[in-house]
Amino acid sequence: MSDEAQKADVDAFEDGENLSEDDINLDLILDVPVTIAMEIGRTDISIRNLLKLNQGSVIELDRMAGEAMDVMVNGTLIAHGEVVVVNEKFGIRLTDVISPTERIAKLQ
Which of 3, 39, 52, 102 has the fewest CB neighbours in a 10 Å radius? Predict the structure, then answer.
């Protein structure tokens, strides 16, 4: 048995041409944890201004009020949504889900 890792032949999987639905078993990854985050906006700020922030400071973001939030899974955009309140907790209602084809294309 060799201690060296062998390179996988990924060419056969690039377009899925050699895979049938029987070959794809998602059960293997269904319990893998991922990080989901909702992003309401971004901004650039200098370290000088960052150090001046204190309680009550307001940071202007690059989004307009009422604009959809980004739903990110492990840093990849998968959907857009709006904030809702469910049982006194914040939630998000998905308004637009990125197709799996587009998600895969963004990874490449």
Answer: 3
